[in-house]
Amino acid sequence: MVFNNYNYDTLTHQSVETIQDSSGLVWHIRINSQCSSCFPPPSIFYAVSSKILTDDVVTLTTTDPSTEYQLTIFGMHGVNTFDSKSSLPSITPITFGSLSQVSMNTSHGGEVALAYFQIGYVSDQIGYPSGYSQITLPTSGDWFYLAFEVLGTHQTHVVTSWLVSPADNSLAIDDAMIR
Questions:
Q1: pTM of the full predicted structure?
Q2: What is the pLDDT of residues 6-63, one digit of tens each?
Q3: How far apart (Å, rounded) are the C-alpha atoms in residues 64 and 13?
């Protein structure tokens, strides 16, 4: 689950108070929203299920429930856990005019690579990384984008490039999950 916890109206960060799950899943933080060098910082949570979920309802409560936020929840069958390599997730703040690229090294080949991109302006045009499948679709008003790729058996180094026009302040994150 990715939660864009930045209130663009008041320019403040919001915190998650609770996450309730109708299937009884326990949610854990993967990336904390207090990333001081990120623009704007996201919160990324995950939960592991021992079975395929079909009708799970997830309810997230924030410190400011009157504000509109972006929340994306997705599931991946056959993935056990995140790669425990200390350099993951790989977080790269991108400043105006620089290349929108992030790289990571994984512990194993054949993992599922996750790519997250967050942009500062909704008018920007976004191109997903080559070879990745979209989790989110670019629509009007989106601030963040998700994609994944199943890596080759021996592929342990990944460079993810996002195409952004114009190049604005943004944030790119790569992570990997073991199958």
A1: 0.78
A2: 555 554 556 778 889 999 999 888 876 555 555 556 778 888 888 888 889 998 887 7
A3: 10
CA distance linking residue 147 with residue 117, whole number of Å: 9
Rounded to whole angstroms, how far apart are CA atoms 125 and 165? 5
Return d(Cα 114, Cα 174) in angstroms, integer. Answer: 6
Q: Which residues contact 127 (CB under 8 A, 6 or more apart)?
A: 162, 163, 164
- The distance in angstroms from the start CA to the end CA of the chain is 18
Using a CB cutoff of 8 Å and minimum separation of 24, what contacts does 96-100 make? 96/167, 96/168, 96/169, 97/167, 98/167, 99/161, 99/167, 100/161, 100/162, 100/163, 100/164, 100/167, 100/170, 100/172
Cα gap 74→40, rounded to integer Å:
21
Strand partners, 116: 146, 173
Instruction: Quote the tokens at residue 59.
Output: 């309810």
Tokens at 83, concatenated: 């790669």
Query: Peptide bond preceding 129: is omega within 30 degrees of 0, i.e. cis?
Result: no
Distance CA 58, CA 48 (A): 13
What type of residue is 102?
V
Per-domain boundaries in the chain? 2-178
Tokens 């090294």 found at? 105
* CA angle 125–132–59, rounded 5-degree value: 80
